[in-house]
Write a structure and sequence with these properties.
Blueprint: E1 2-6, H1 18-32, E2 36-41, E3 51-54, E4 71-74, E5 85-88, E6 101-102, H2 106-111, E7 138-142, H3 152-162, E8 166-169, E9 174-175, E10 181-182, E11 188-192, H4 196-204, E12 206-211, H5 221-228, E13 233-235, H6 241-244, E14 250-252, H7 256-264, H8 271-281, H9 284-299
Parallel strand pairs: 1-2, 1-4, 2-3, 4-5, 5-6, 7-8, 7-12, 8-11, 12-13, 13-14
Antiparallel strand pairs: 9-10
Helix pairs in contact: 1-9, 3-7, 5-8
């Protein structure tokens, strides 16, 4: 098939950008499956395996879609098109939901009254191979710490009570967005926004991801990336997490005391098992094959959803017992 992937960001991503990384790895995997790939993306996008068209917001969208395209895959906001299309909903939404929407986990789809989903996958060949036998003493948190629903304070409290150090990637000690939070805990190191090299170094030395989110997490690349680096996951059982975290690779609980106990016993988990699980299950090729099935469906004139159910109304502040 001739597939156009649309995203307004510039590819490939050079620093932070989870969605951009997924789209880039999807494009490469589709190419490796012998599909013809076109990237309609931000200014400066370059690729040696796909045709590139720089998106121009001043032009009508359909005017920028070549005639030979079979399916358009939206990763940025939907725009009317004459072509068969799917769109991936990467975050939570209060609607309305397009009948050709694909979500990033089963629970994510159910929360929006839908059923079509594809788990995010990554090209692990682009990642540093971790030293799975390295000594691991500290834990880590990875995410947008300024978002209260990510609950970085919960991660800080859990690790303090478990008497283990915590590396926070994606947040700062002084945070005005969270209501002027100034964290004095000496067991915490704040790294701010990190690049791939720093992230790989920190996670390769981490005994686990502490991720006590208080919302319906759509997917969570922090989870699969951490597992790839041999880190078990200690988190709340919300959104996609029960789909991603098995008993072999982590503990899920909405009770702080239970997570403290689990973090204290992180050494029970096998770093090789965590790594193999992420590498084998959440890879870009698996993702691309799943999307290709949906492409075929819409190309044959069949919408992904005939009927959409109700969307849940509360995506924030789920129960968390301290």
């Amino acid at each position: 098939m001739n597939i156009l992937l649309y995203i307004r960001a510039t590819l490939p991503v050079t620093n932070y950008g989870g969605t951009e990384r997924v789209v880039w790895d999807l494009a490469q995997a589709l190419h490796n499956l012998n599909h013809q790939v076109t990237l309609l993306a931000g200014v400066g996008t370059k690729s040696d395996f796909a045709r590139v068209i720089e998106y121009d917001p001043a032009l009508p969208f359909d005017q920028q879609v070549p005639d030979d395209i079979d399916v358009v895959h939206f990763h940025s906001a939907f725009e009317p098109t004459r072509k068969p299309y799917v769109l991936t909903q990467h975050g939570n939404s209060d609607g309305p939901i397009d009948p050709n929407t694909i979500f990033v986990s089963s629970q994510h789809a159910q929360n929006h009254g839908a059923s079509a989903f594809v788990h995010n996958g990554l090209n692990w060949d682009n990642y540093v191979r971790p030293d799975l036998s390295a000594r691991r003493e500290r834990m880590h948190f990875l995410g947008k710490a300024a978002w209260r629903v990510k609950n970085v304070q919960g991660a800080i409290d859990i690790t303090r009570k478990a008497k283990v150090g915590l590396d926070v990637m994606g947040g700062h000690r002084l945070n005005f967005k969270m209501g002027f939070r100034f964290t004095l805990d000496r067991h915490v190191r704040f790294w701010g926004m990190v690049d791939d090299k720093v992230k790989a170094r920190v996670m390769s030395q981490s005994a686990g991801l502490v991720f006590p989110v208080t919302w319906h997490e759509p997917f969570g690349l922090a989870i699969t990336e951490s597992l790839y680096f041999g880190c078990p996951v200690f988190a709340t059982p919300y959104g996609s997490l029960p789909e991603l975290v098995t008993r072999d690779v982590g503990v899920l609980s909405a009770n702080e005391a239970e997570l403290v106990t689990a973090v204290s016993d992180a050494a029970q988990f096998d770093t090789q098992r965590c790594h193999d699980y992420a590498r084998d299950v959440f890879d870009a090729m698996t993702m691309a094959k799943a999307y290709a099935g949906y492409y075929e469906q819409v190309a044959n004139g069949k919408p992904l959803h005939q009927d959409l159910g109700a969307i849940i109304t509360d995506f924030k502040r789920l129960p968390y017992q301290r």
